[in-house]
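Q: What does the predicted 3D structure of RNA ligase domain-containing protein look like?
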Amino acid sequence: MKAYPAIPSVDAAPSDLFEEGHLWLLEKIDGAHLRFQLQKSGLVRFGDRNRVYDDPDDVPEPYQHAVRHVRENLDREALRNAVDDVEDVVFFGEATSYRTIDYDWERMPSFLGVDVWSADAETFRPPDAVQAIFDGIGLESVNVFEQERRARDFDPGSYAIPQSAWYDGPAEGVVIRDKRGRRAKLLHPDFGDADELTPFDTSTEELAARYTTRSRLEKLATRLEDADRPVTFETLYERVLEDILREAHRRLDHGESSVELDEFRSEVGALTRAFLEDRSNGT
């Protein structure tokens, strides 16, 4: 599966990126890189930045919420109708898991598309086509701050990073693209490529109760019902754990965390089971 090229900073970008043509300015999302490809069998093959997973269940836990989102929302028929060979196309995006920015997780999709590779044409699709492509297969793409800006009119040194579309604060940065596939990134001064997180310093029971709230459980149970899925312990537990790990995995998995991940899973399971018992009793 095609790997995505590293995006250089504006200082290391191609020298002519800001001298000719037009630029698209996209919100840089503080997430985890995820790519996927529809197989002829109808199964979806996923990869992170460095590895490819033939079995979606082998994708690491922090990505599982995004894997489920893609599998449940991808319009396979629309994709088959749009291309001669579905395996010629690779989709790239961000699994929107917590890293340094606490986005509005209720609004923000688990996956946001960034780019599309066409093996047939041996090129990435131009930015003005990417949004339409993701829309056409049932997925959202990153938001566009500005399109078709004259390259000569763009000064990275004086450009102010806009507010994010996904929380009340500035975007992590801007990805700058042109139609020839050249890219650069400009980060907000409050953010950088290196980040630190404070590990959890609390009991497993307290932390599980903080995240496994009745409102979260009810929200996910309702989503299952709206999709005509049975609300069993297994299905609800799987989804609530994915939902929590989307927001908290990096702190839970921190080497200095006071919480053991396996114990945390058990506590989440116990709270999920208690919620279902109360729900079945009408309380």
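A (community wiki): The structure tokens above were generated from the sequence. The chain is about 30% helix and 20% strand. Strands lie at 22-28, 32-38, 44-47, 52-53, 89-95, 111-118, 123-124, 144-150, 173-177, 183-187.
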